[in-house]
Amino acid sequence: MEMPARKGARSMAEIPAEILSQLERGELETANLVEWLAIDQGKLACYLIQKESWPIPVHEVDETIKALNRPSVNTKNHALGGLLLKYSGSSPEVLKRALIHPADMVRNWACYAIALNPGLSFSEKLQTMLLLADDPHFGVREVAWMALRPYLASQLSEGLELLLPLVTRKESSIKRFASEISRPRGVWCEHIPALKENPGQATPLLRPLMKDESKYVQDSVANWLNDASKTRPDWVKEFCQEWELPDVAASTKYILKRAKRSLK
Length: 264
Hints:
The chain is mainly alpha-helical. The chain has helices at 17-23, 33-38, 41-51, 58-66, 73-88, 92-99, 104-115, 122-133, 138-154, 156-163, 172-181, 193-197, 203-206, 215-229, 233-241, 250-259. Helix 4 runs antiparallel to helix 5.
C-alpha cells in the first residue's frame, strides 16, 4: 500500500531530529520548503562522497561553500552542481546517478551540473533538463528552470524558439517550465531586461497556454503577464483584450483576472 505523503514541519525548529538526519543522508525527499531550507547541503554532500564513493574531495565541498559571498540554498545548489560537473568527467556514473537520486537536493545539484556544462549547447542542455523539469518533486522542478534561465537570457531569440514545442506538450510541468523560465521578472532569479522591454517576443509562447486547463500552468502564465505589466502595461492590456470574449473559457478568465491584478 502506498504511504501517505508527509506534510513536513511548519518551522525548522519543529523538524524531528531523525527526519533531518535522513534528509542529510540523502535517504528522504523534502516534504516542504521548510525542510528544503533546513538541509545542511555540505553535510549531505560529504556523507554521499563517503557512502557512494563520489570522486569529489571532501575539503573542496567545505572550501566551495565557505567561498560563497551570499550563501543561500540556490547558491549552494549552484556551487555543488559545479563540483559535480567538475568531477563527473572522470566518473560519468556519478552524474547519471545524481539525475535519478532518491534525494531531491541531489537532483537539484544535477540541474546545475547540466546548466553549467560548457560542452553542451542551449538546445542540448534544454533536452537533458526536461527530465528534471518533469520531476515529481516541487523543488527540483523549480531549480530546473532557475538553473537554465541565464542561458535562455543570453540567447533569447533562439531560446524562445526552442521553448515553443514545450507549450504543446501534454505534461503540465513541462508547459509550466516553459512559462517560468521565460518570465520577464520571475522569482528568486535575475530579470530578463529584453522581455521586460518587449514582452511581445514571447507572444507565440503564451498563446497556446491561455486556454490550458491546469491551474499549475494558469498561475504561471498569469504571473508571466503580471510581470510584464510592471514595465509594459500597454502591451498586457492589448494582449488581454484579445481574449476577453463572451464565450471565453473559464480557465482563460482566471488567467486574465490574475494577469491584470497590478494594472490600474
